[in-house]
Amino acid sequence: MAIFFALIAFLSWGVADLYAAISSRKIGNFYTYIIVQLVGIAYSLILLPFFAGRFDLYYFFIAFLLAIIDNVGFLFFYKAFESGNVSLNGTIAGSFGLVTVLVALLFFGEILTPFSSLGIIFISIGIILSSLRLKELLKGNLKGVFSDKGVFYAMITMLLWGVYLSLIKIPIEEIGWYWTMVPVSLMLPFLLLLGRFRKGVLEVMQNKINIKSGIIHAVFAFGGYIAYYLGIGQGNISLVGPIAGASPVLFVVLSRFVFRDRLNTQQWIGILLTLGGIVLISLS
Question: I need a labelling partner for 29 at 20 to 30 A (CA). Which of 38, 85, 160, 172 fits?
């Protein structure tokens, strides 16, 4: 069942990322984030009577702290799409499987397989090729080293999501997937203390902006979260994480039908190596 849930997360996140890119391009990362928070609150309220289960304040607090990491990742993710190449930055951000495997090795004692080792090498080389201008790096021109404006945000997203999606196993094993998911959408009540967020929520609620793509993104994103939580609750992170993390493969295929962002040869080689590495890790 762990593999089944991982595949559901793979499909859900692949579609979610496509609509994240569409929404970020249309209305920006700020409004897209607000929509995700509102949909997350709706998810939590609807599912409360059916899946609440056991509650422990200590592990809920851990889930809340990890949710802060996840939410910051969301903001960087949308910013990467808003400011840069969709296929490139989606692939880099989606390489969080590399980080989940490394964290699982360090903190959960899971074993690195030959496929995982090769996948890590592929992803590392792929990210370097796709995200950096090697000529500028060799010249020492650090300002022009990134190949795309969104690469920096995508890399931060990869690191943050990798940490979150690996350490989240700790509260899931103690309080289940529902109470682990709830904190992801609990940031908004605190952010409402800021005037900009209050205004943003009102604009979204009054339908003053185009929210359709954002809602579709949020529905699939949280569907992927639930499937992922259920998966790692029944299997190893190093198994479920990389399969779910292979969603950039689906995303890149889908995005080519929607966006016409141009890539140079080096970036294409990097993307293909990264995607290949993600697949190798998922096969481990």
Answer: 172
